[in-house]
């Protein structure tokens, strides 16, 4: 029971992150399930995706109510994503546990590194805001994102969200809401792929239920938070946590088999870099807010100057 409560909290934490950043529910939940359970990588991914069917549905409805969803993009990225997820689930199900565990940990670590770097060092472009997103861009993006999501136990958001943000064609809040909503299609397809290949064998339905409950509680909160919480800070925090947790698998017996002293050195280095990234993110966030304030003040001054000029011209 205590383990299920912890897993439920993991679901809550994962959905808060995912609903706010548009990524990392699967990566977060899978990372902690690897640490907390003895399930095979395929069973862990299947468990997380079963829970995601419910959390992504609730999250999508919550984002829709807040006006954060572009339904045209949902369909055009979600359907290819579902196809990629089904293929990815089939591939992972046919790997041995010994081979799959380091593969999954490597994918998760790379995704964590990407999240950390993406939100620490890069801002959000809106230069093409309002221009339509084309299928020739969304289809391959969906296929790749769905495949990575199923094989890594997460990845739909880390692949899809930065790509849509980089396009500058959707508001950031709509990118988050659209990716979260389309994830329902990916979760259903991945679950069908795992069930077709694994049956119910090894899947922890209790853990899936605990993750689902935690995620459902967090979904409406996250849909609100996305409008207010600085994504740079949240991304830096979550990215570092994912890297640190998956590094444990790669430096241990399942990976490189480093001795305890070497492992400790790796952990200290990761924590130091993580702390530096967070501090940098915070400084950049404060700088961006200050620049926004200056720009807003400049606009007010220009507007008042124009109004004063009009009043002067009228009086003459």
From TrEMBL:
The keyword Transmembrane helix applies. One of its GO terms (cellular component) is plasma membrane. It is a multi-pass membrane protein. It comes from the Bacteria. Its main location: membrane. Keywords: Cell membrane, Membrane, Transmembrane, Transmembrane helix. It is found in: Cell membrane; Membrane. The chain crosses the membrane at residues 29-52, 73-91, 103-121, 205-226, 233-252, 264-283. Pfam families: TauE. Belongs to the 4-toluene sulfonate uptake permease (TSUP) (TC 2.A.102) family. PANTHER family: MEMBRANE TRANSPORTER PROTEIN MJ0441-RELATED, MEMBRANE TRANSPORTER PROTEIN YTNM-RELATED. This is Probable membrane transporter protein. It comes from Gordonia malaquae NBRC 108250.
